[in-house]
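User: Could you check the structure of this?
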Amino acid sequence: MATPDPVKAQVILADQDRLQDTCRQFEAVSRGEKFINSEPLREVPSHSVKLKPLRAVHLSQVEGARDQRDRVFSLLQAYNNVVMMLSEQFVKWDRILASAEQRKGTAA
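Assistant: Sure, the predicted structure tokens are below.
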């Protein structure tokens, strides 16, 4: 059974806002299509082949950086230990000297 034209018109008018909004969205998609299908984006797969060796170099550099970080961390720990031991030794010597000076002062 066919729907009469006045009923079709009422349905269209009732959904006019939604239809216009949908139309605007389709127009926005159409405008963006030229960016999606641009030449640089179509060339991405060919660039992927060129990036593969760079990826390997980058991973190697990351590993080298980790090793370097670990070596620096070890050296800093060793340095801190040496400084702490020297500080403790200086404190001991200071006590010995202070004690000797005190004995010398009371003996004189």
